[in-house]
Amino acid sequence: MAINSFIMARLSVKSTFSLDLRTIRALERISTRWRVSKSEALRRAVLIAEQASEGGTPDALLALDELQRSLGMTPARAREWTRAVRDERRASSEARERGIR
């Protein structure tokens, strides 16, 4: 029995760009936040800019960033919310185990 498999190659072109220090630092922050390489962050940013210039729908990560910004979400507030939800779920589970609803 033959196993059909194929590998799709990602076509990429190496390019050299000169970017100012502010842009480099922004790219580094974005790549860290998105947990991707700087090249991937740059690819995403270019596609987002293209969509925006064409009136398209913004990328999901951009929409999430905007939502979090509008809610004043900070890493500390996110940790606090996570802790509160975890405590609430734990209390609910314990109550259910005791037969209290």
Write the layout of secondary structure elements.
Layout: H1 21-34, H2 38-53, H3 60-70, H4 75-97
Helix content: 55-70%
Principal-axis shape: elongated
Distance between the termini: 56 Å
Q: Describe the sheet with the most strands.
A: none
The chain-level mean pLDDT equals: 82
Structure commentary:
- The protein starts with 20 loop residues before the first helix and ends with a helix.
- By secondary structure, the protein is mainly α.
- It has four helices and no strands.
- Helices cover about 65% and strands about 0% of the residues.
- The mean pLDDT is about 80.
- The radius of gyration is 22 Å and the shape is elongated.
- The longest helix has 23 residues, at about 75-95.
Quick structural gist:
It contains four helices and no strands.
Question: Key features?
Answer:
101 residues; elongated
